[in-house]
Amino acid sequence: MTAKVIDGKAFAAGVRAQVAAHVARLKEEQGLTPGLAVVLVGEDPASQVYVRNKGTQTVECGMNSYEHKLAADTSEAELLALIARLNADPAVHGILVQLPLPKHLDSDLVINAIEPAKDVDGFHISNVGLLGTGQKSMVPCTPLGCLMMLRDHHGSLAGLNAVVVGRSNIVGKPMAQLLLGDSCTVTIAHSRTKDLAAVCRGADILVAAVGRPEMIPGDWVKPGATVIDVGINRIERDGKTRLVGDVHYASAAEVGAITPVPGGVGPMTIACLLANTLTACCRAHGLPEPKGLTA
Ligand code: NDP
């Protein structure tokens, strides 16, 4: 049996098209343009690429992009002052502070200084609490993208056994909350889990968010299960640098539906950032939220 490949690149293009269409209507009918402010502190090369991609895709969707690039030695007070200005700026509907921050800055303090309604990464403690209690919140982009693909593939997720491998605050925990919200029976596994293979084999939905190349082999996947591979790992193979997931793709793709790496969850993360910015703008103006783009 060869399973379906869930094409995150194509899915993300569809999400961006939906966002762009909604933004065009907002402009025409309300005279409103959603705006996303991205703050980058320092010169980490990977972060610079992410920020550039975010800015480009924001503009392509018809939204305003405001980039704030600050020196690596920016003080906490300066960064907090910028966030306060962005919080108060009505043209800014979403604020994202690119992580990781330089070591002298307290990430929790900085993230919690963002107005929760503008926290399009969904990392503010208020949004974490709202999600945990099943209330309307800003949802972290990567798990939101995974949820959208799962809903599209399965329709209803109710009653399915979901196993999330990884318990980080940015992927594993919010992913588990979202699956619970859709009435899955959820298990969260981590580095201390006993007999991870058996736990994984019980999953109708297996989400891998570990950061270990090809750690989950195909024989840990139940036939017919859906595998969402969040991992992005750089390895050397055949003299080339390659990106692989946390799941051994070739063997897992024999038994279940699966997201590839690259081209699976990755493209959905920025698409969901754009969706969250649009949602934040609609909420700020008391307008209906875009359908299918929120949790
Ligand atoms: P973290 O390092 O924060 O968390 C990793 C989790 O995996 C931890 O909970 C850890 O358990 C668990 N873990 C580690 N080793 C094992 C093991 N042997 N068995 C079971 N569980 C284990 O990573 P993130 O959540 O931030 O990211 C996970 C992966 O997803 C990374 O590859 C990252 O690059 C990728 N990622 C991809 C994104 C995308 O857009 N596609 C976005 C964000 C992340 P414990 O808590 O016990 O230590």
In short:
The chain is an alpha/beta fold.
Report on this model:
It is globular, with a radius of gyration of 19 Å. A hairpin with a 2-residue loop joins strand 8 and strand 9. Helix 6 packs parallel to helix 7 and helix 6 packs across helix 10 (265-284). It is built from 10 helices and 10 strands. It has 2 domains: 29-115, Leucine Dehydrogenase, chain A, domain 1 (Rossmann fold, 3-Layer(aba) Sandwich); 141-267, NAD(P)-binding Rossmann-like Domain (Rossmann fold), CATH 3.40.50.720. The longest helix has 23 residues, at 8-30. A 5-stranded parallel β-sheet has the order 5-4-6-7-10. Strands 2-1-3 form a 3-stranded parallel β-sheet, sandwiched between helices. By secondary structure, it is of the alpha/beta class. It has helices spanning 8-30, 45-60, 76-88, 107-111, 125-132, 141-154, 172-181, 196-201, 249-252, 265-284; strands at 35-41, 64-70, 94-97, 161-165, 185-189, 205-208, 226-229, 233-237, 240-244, 257-258. The model has no long low-confidence stretch (mean pLDDT 97). Helices cover 40% and strands 16% of the residues. The site of NADPH dihydro-nicotinamide-adenine-dinucleotide phosphate has 25 residues, from helix 10.
